[in-house]
Design goal:
The structure is a homotetramer of 419-residue chains. By secondary structure, chain A is of the alpha+beta class. Helices cover 29% and strands 12% of the residues of chain A. The longest helix of chain A is centred in the N-terminal third of the chain and has 30 residues. The interface between A and D is medium-sized, with 35 and 35 residues.
């Protein structure tokens, strides 16, 4: 499972491992080292007697944000580190994996819990690896493909034609992790919430629908935007500026969209391609999602509404399409039920809910308590996982969180309305 | 009532009217003009036939943030305007007030609603006038008093000695404006929420209690802080830097605190004074309030908890102490009930609740819809009003909102915990 | 003479005294206080026994940049000081002037030298007062006039029609102050320099000529610009943005130019007016002056060339036109000689010479040594004085200096070429 | 000769080729590509009929600053390009070198002149390669060595003990390139200058001497500094911050100095080493050089003084010490003359002369005219070459230029005084 991290990086050139084109993006090399650091710091150092650290300076270099461990190396400077090399980082991984073997025999209690946490942590970074690789390659004016063998499937033009809303009754429902499997501390405690009757779109907003918003001057109508979003999107440079692309004309829109003459394109992990109108729009900020919903006459769902609806759905989606690594048009609804499509494994769906602690929330003890809890301000909850989320990693109660202006994740839009 | 605005400014020197020491602060002259612009723009221009604008360029100059009216003059440049002069702005006020006389005879329906809104708007700016005047004078190295006749009352040393918690049952309660009087659109619709049993402190956190947090190295312990708060407070310059005060040593703490040797002081509207240990701490950010609560072993209340508790309290407090203009120690609880003290009119109490729309929220139509709705991201709800809020302006359902790093409002802390 | 400072401020509203629309501009109140501080600090405190400072805190508040006196109040924050008020500053001036009376009786030796320096210092600030007042009023969207009684004289359309070049032989010439009157330390020592034969334009570049450069796309042709100038002018916002003017279309050009439809205007101290094509262009940066010269096929003169030519000219010019306060078209050359026009008292002429010490330069002793010497990097020498320079203040050896991007001074262009 | 570029990079890891730790530093891969671009752009495209560009997009990607060719890719984003890879860049070099073979047969006239220019250009980047590699490795907290086989020679403690001054008469001397070999356009025309009698130190300032300045609180005494230098050095972060080094205490000083307890170290291309007190100080800014000279009671020489003195010296120095790549203590003076030591090939010596055009200067025609001329503002001239300058690249008339705050070049200090 941990080897998936190396597998994801396999198509990269050595040069791709060290680049940080913007502060939010971490170099792939850093992801490989940091996830290893996690096992070394939280398992080997406290529990493996006689463990010899691979390099004592890595405690500082690959600490992401755990002040309880010590002052971390500055995030925005991760791209300034040509050393350790990729080979040295891979050796670091082997060193730690080997040392972990001995510990895995004792993997129960606190040790077992931390091993499981470390593996889920690794999965989160496996998604981030793909997300950051897309940024590294997609903002390069050469726009190289991540893999040449990724399919850009032909999408039938009416694949997403019908948008319907499923209705839900109001009342008290329980949300939060129900037990029976791993969850992060921020999914707890399970607790009742009071919902009003609502309706949820049965699929995601498509590129074609979002394009209609763009062409309706959506980016120039302040009445559609939250105030901070308006300010942010006024400052938002279009992709051509972001990628320092020499020719194309400036446009505003989702992160990887660009235009050549009258034709719209987007950069995918398989390289630039004409915009697939029936695929879900992705790489939009919360501000864009919110403005789109207002323009369309709807709103975004709350996280409780989303979880209420998703709890009835099977955790299945496009995860498996590893030869695509891009959100795809919705599959037809299953015959006997599950009328909501694209709930899991397509794009992370912005909710209207700020990321705050559940009532009675308790973070983990010690430095591990910094994993989730200290980020509970200024961010919004996203639900459902994306096409680059490792299969098996998400669930109905899973809470992802990002800042409202963030575009570089595989984020998308599901509409809702009151009944 | 509108004349209160001029009365608040009466003690100022002409020079004080035009200063903008930081972008959040508006010059008093601007407040006087903008509140007038509100009546001119939303009442006289649409409803008073034949109305002659005082100066057509003011539509642009004194537009705060209503994109529906046109591009506003940049907020951070309000201090760059020496003209119009104070006298011209006062003349503008008279011009508009006079024109409003005719309209007031027809003050029913939409006109009446807008007049009422305009007066509540004016009250909000009356509070901001005092808040901004404090910043203008308090960050000047000369630290002049706003008024020489403001009492700095002797505070008995045990005035705030006893902190107790009042318990509340859980269950479904209604929050939001109940009708029967004016409210802003963001207080609606009234709706049920589900509460868990909780306890609320019967008074505010005092300066003395907050000082214990400072002296316990609260500002140097990252485990107490939200991540964004830690970053922000690391960047936060102490008062001496903020005021460019030449001598005093740097400290971190509430906005107007400073230290001379071993003695702590704070700047008040009556001038610098030794820190009143039993008065409520004020001018703290949400990050500071949250860190203090964590340090003390408690948490901040949600806005629903606060409103649940406040709904039983009379809207009375220290508003009346207009010869003080500073939060005062709690009065003893009333004999027959109302065990919560300092609920209204002392300091704005940070809640743990992000400022989001109530379910079913609808902003006003047209440009007036920008009044509240477009700010529903990145801010937190504050409740209860402060010692500089006009009496009669707040109520249990009133929702104020500021960014988590803001310190320049009269903000404070009330603790809560789960049961 | 010192009373000229108050006289210059007389037309101002109290509100105009405290504004700092950009960091380079100082509020008029500050100029009035700082020039007074100069006498208090360098004369009264060291030499007037028993002198009681007006307010000891002013030593810090009105120190411009003399680190030898102590840490100065930050320059960019001068506009944040509503206190002391204008009246208090005027009282400060009277207090110091009165105390100076006693000292003036002993005005010889060091005291005498410092008094003379203080008066020349005051004259420099009298020019800055007018320069900064123009910025305060001219960047206000209302563009009020400084004085209503300032003439905007009718300018004959061919007033500046003839541009000729005067030739000068090469060889060794002496530059620097020759003795026989006051000079600043940076004009010394007088020393020989070696010149090549050169030609100097007999008048300044006009608005009309500069407009031809603008209309020839001069601001879009990088080959005309120094690299730093190209970068700076790309970042340079046009006046409409600078003044936050709501309507006019964006243009690039001299600081106070703007356009309404096809007509060009400029803001003058008498208010906005159609661009006077035959008046000298002013408020251009060194980068603009240099780019214009390159476009025109010429170059800027060195300071030695300028001084060589100016040494033969009488120190007379448009100084006297105090009812204009704006550069005027050239007067016809005098019958018997003085073929160079507009040398003194029209606009400060950018030279190609970086501001460096003359060989053997020695700054004054003590903190007064900070007056000129420490600025001898990154700036360029300007010569000749402007229409707002106090008459009698300039001379052929006078060296003014500003950064190459500065536009807010009354700066202009004289062309030169090699022979 | 062009192959020296690859040879310099040979010790690097692939990861080192793409890093840009600060905007002034270019990734080694970029240097390899840009110098190739120079031949492709200025020779192959205009002169080699039928030449097929390696990748047409490189015209944009590897344009450094030639606006005449088109808008260049932003300098500060050079580190954001993981592609083309190192291997692809090396292939680009081979492609261009091969195409150049055909052209070299016709290398006369304009073609010949451009070939020579291209080779000198390549040499400049060979120096920059070593300079930037030092920054890439030296600001990494791991401080890896560039080469393990670089000697850190034992330096006798009195190697630099004697500092003497050589005297020069004043008078008219000629400076500028005298013909007889290649020179850049900025060394022309040769022209007479008038010098006063002066004295020049016979060797460079040493680390030990500079350390005395540091320990005499040189960085805390504003009277020693130019105003802009004081501001800049107040903002200058010490190496520990620059390198984000976790442990060492903050110090101010030359770029690569750091301190551990009482011992001073510096980072060299051979790795960290105790400070060699008798070696020349290097990696100081002009501001530091100027402040040191003032502290020591001297001044920096002008470029004319330097060239006057250097013209009598042989162009020989420590260039040859390619197993050191670090400035070394002075060699004893030659028996029969050449009393000035360390003139060539030790460190670039800051002069007091701003970089301005020589009288009559004419840049090359076309886009190649951007090579030198457009940088003639805000920079200062440095002379003499450094220990990383390719042998044969400098001469007495060579004018290098950098901004006064730049530290990352191999810059040093030679003292001068008037006679």
């Amino acid at each position: 499972m941990r080897s998936d991290s190396e597998r994801i990086c396999a198509p990269l050139a050595t040069e791709d491992y060290g680049i940080q084109p913007m502060p939010d993006v971490s170099p792939p090399k850093w992801h490989l080292a940091h996830t290893t650091w996690f096992f070394e710091t939280f398992l080997l150092k406290p529990f493996a007697s006689g463990y010899r650290p691979f390099d004592p300076r890595f405690e500082y270099l690959f600490n992401s944000y755990y002040n309880g461990i010590g002052r971390p190396y500055p995030r925005a400077r991760r791209g300034a580190l040509s050393r350790p090399t990729v080979a040295e980082v891979l050796e670091y991984r082997r060193h730690v994996d080997q040392a972990m073997q001995a510990l895995l025999g004792r993997a129960e209690g606190e040790i077992g819990a931390r091993v499981v946490l470390g593996l889920h942590h690794e999965q989160q970074h496996q998604e981030l690896l793909l997300t950051d690789i897309k940024h590294i390659l997609g903002t390069n004016p050469l726009m190289p493909a991540y893999r040449d063998d990724l399919a850009s499937p032909a999408i039938p033009a009416d694949a997403a034609a019908k948008l319907a809303f499923q209705h839900f009754e109001g009342g008290v429902v329980e949300i939060g992790a129900a037990g029976g499997g791993f969850c992060f501390d921020n999914e707890l405690p399970r607790h009742p919430v009071l919902l009003r009757p609502f309706a949820l779109a049965d699929r995601l907003v498509t590129n074609g629908e979002y394009l209609a918003f763009v062409e309706d001057q959506g980016y120039r109508r302040p009445e559609l935007w939250l105030s901070d979003g308006w300010t942010a999107q006024c400052a938002m440079a279009p992709l051509e500026a972001r990628t320092d692309h020499p020719r194309a004309e400036p446009v505003q829109g989702p992160l990887y969209w660009f235009r050549d003459g009258d034709t719209w394109y987007e950069y995918r992990l398989s390289g630039p391609a004409p915009l697939a109108l029936d695929a879900p729009v992705t790489h939009v900020s919360f501000y864009e999602a919110d403005a789109y919903a207002r323009w369309a006459g709807y709103r975004l769902p709350t996280e409780a509404e989303w979880e209420r609806a998703a709890a009835e759905q099977p955790v299945a989606g496009h995860f498996a399409d590893r030869d695509v690594l891009h959100p795809l048009p919705p599959r037809p609804p299953a015959a006997g039920g599950f009328p909501l499509r694209q709930i899991f494994g397509d794009v992370w769906e912005w909710t209207a809910s700020p990321y705050t602690p559940y009532p009675g929330y308790r973070p983990l003890a010690g430095a591990l308590g910094e994993y989730n809890g200290k980020f509970m301000s200024n961010q919004l909850v996203l639900r459902g996982g994306s096409c680059v989320t490792p299969p098996g990693h998400v669930r109905a109660s899973y809470r992802n969180f990002f800042y409202p202006g963030d575009q570089w994740q595989f984020t998308g839009i599901r509409l809702a309305h009151d009944l």
